[in-house]
Amino acid sequence: MKNQAYNPYLPSYEYIPDGEPYVFGDRLYVFGSHDRFNGKLFCMNDYVCWSAPVDDLSDWRYEGVIYRKKQDPRNKMGLQQMFAPDVARGADGRYYLYYTVAFSSVMSVAVCDTPAGQYQFYGYVSRPDGELLWNKSGDPMLFDPGIFVDDDGCVYLYSGFAPKRSVPFPLTGWRRRTNKGGYVIRLERDMVTVIGEPKLLFPTAGEAEGTGFEGHEFFEASSMRKIGLTYYFIYSSVNGHELCYATSNSPMGDFTYGGTLVSNGDLFLNGAVSDRDALNYIGNNHGSLVQVKEQWYVFYHRQTNRHHYSRQGLAEKITIREDGSIPQAELTSCGLNDGPLQGKGEYSSHIACHLMSGQGAGRYGVYFGGVSFRTHPYFTQSGRDREDKPDQYIANMRDGAVAGYKYFWIEDVKEIAVCVRGSASGIMNVSNALGEAPFAQIQIEPSKDFTYYRTTQDRTMKDRTTSMSGSKSGKQALYFCFKGSGKLDFRSFVLG
């Protein structure tokens, strides 16, 4: 039986957001920043890489540390974070990794002979005379590189940072940066020398009237892909939780807004528009597109542990229509899997695609959760940050809290069990849709240790869900909603 792929697609102890996926040879590689579990800042760890064979996207391999913070000459002590990177294969066949150290607004480059080998520092993006690009007071911010090498060998670097409230940043001593939007920067084939002047492509909020980007203006997370003859620019909008795309016939300009690719709260689907409508806890987002064989995917990330600083990579299938448009992807638990998950066996609770309290979800701030999220459920793990022993689970489920999973192929499931612990006393209701009447109820009692509680159905889930959905399809969602007193930690569920 072929292994299944889940969301998050990496082991649950791994916190790699800002994923840039690429197929090199017969493997899919993901490059991203590297958060620390329960970290106090973004991107506290060194860069690592994971890859999977294109024939089995469940078989991820840890490639190890590919670049350390202290390798950058401007960060010899390794005390500053390396933010979201990007990678491209140059005309010389080598692989170039682009990044910024914290908010320095200096674009650094490292190089390696293989996609996931040991990268070595190469240089800084500079003008022909050697002066660092945008190194003067008032210059725009260099941030979140998107590096792209076109079919003709021309090199383009996309960058920019434009929060909704534009505030100059005191970044490097007396220098102060401005936040005007997203830029394209031509580079020589040496991958570091600037050609001409950078060009503003995507103005920020308040300056985008009449462009078609209103309400989804550029914020950060530049990434470029070429599909056929069309250039797709992927970015995070001022809404923060969504990845959007824009298209053009040229890598240098005249982009047209396309739409939302994915939201880490499923916002903008089914009429949901405000933070209070989110079906999952929302925060910043970053990712891009990749084609594996005949299927296209969007990679993005989620927040865990009630804050921004422990983010995890996710992926969803997307469809590119004949006219080039891409409908928004919905959040799922199956992600890279070839269809729904099997409706039998034990599943970790952390693969939930929807999570919320009885009062809904919300937007995480930059700092630790605080009072507003004290009564909310969240993804977490035991112990400290590590590179082994996955044990992530959902903590702090209270009355009305919901964990949702999409999708399973259900056949002849006659029993459901949940593995929980805590002070909770009540009922775990199981349904096929949010707010729908339950088809199963499991009695929960207080327990200090993780304990299995189960129920046996009078008829199979297949019969029950068919009658509820009006369809004979076995593809079903599962929603677990706790009703009762106290609180519980939810480790796993069993379809038996």
From TrEMBL:
The keyword Hydrolase appears for this protein? yes
**According to the UniProt entry, where is the signal peptide?**
none
Q: Offer an example of a GO molecular function term for this protein.
A: hydrolase activity, hydrolyzing O-glycosyl compounds
Gene Ontology biological process terms from the UniProt entry: xylan catabolic process
- Which SUPFAM superfamilies does the record associate with it? Arabinanase/levansucrase/invertase (SSF75005)
Family to which this protein belongs: Belongs to the glycosyl hydrolase 43 family.
Its protein name is Alpha-N-arabinofuranosidase
Organism name: Paenibacillus oryzae
